[in-house]
Amino acid sequence: MIVDGKTAELLGSTREALSPEETCTAWFSRIKPEAVASVPVSVGKTQQGLMDENTCLRIHPTKGGRYVRCGGTAEKADGGFVHRGCHDDVDARIREKLKKEEAARRQEEQLAKP
Fold first, then answer.
1. Which of 4, 8, 23, 87 could disulfide-link 18, Cβ–Cβ 3.0 to 4.6 Å?
2. Are strands 80-89 and 64-77 parallel, antiparallel or unpaired?
3. Cα(83)–Cα(72) distance, rounded to whole angstroms?
4. Whole-prediction pTM
């Protein structure tokens, strides 16, 4: 796996620090276990020629759990696939959304009490 500087940063590394194999291992192994099942589904869609996005919680080596959105497509090449897309740190947006959803849920609970 060869990544750009932004993706390497999201992995907690630099482009030069890891080999392509180490980058691939780091990319997959840092996905939180509860989010792992959604990733092959998204990858499979891209390998069918579709564009797909996936937002999941990953473990950054210094920042801890961070929500990252991955999106892209894939094309067949040399007996495998070349995936092209982008990764973005969406942690603040997702955490704010979850906070608002929790506040709304609590408000509904309060309103439902006799």
1. 23
2. antiparallel
3. 7
4. 0.79
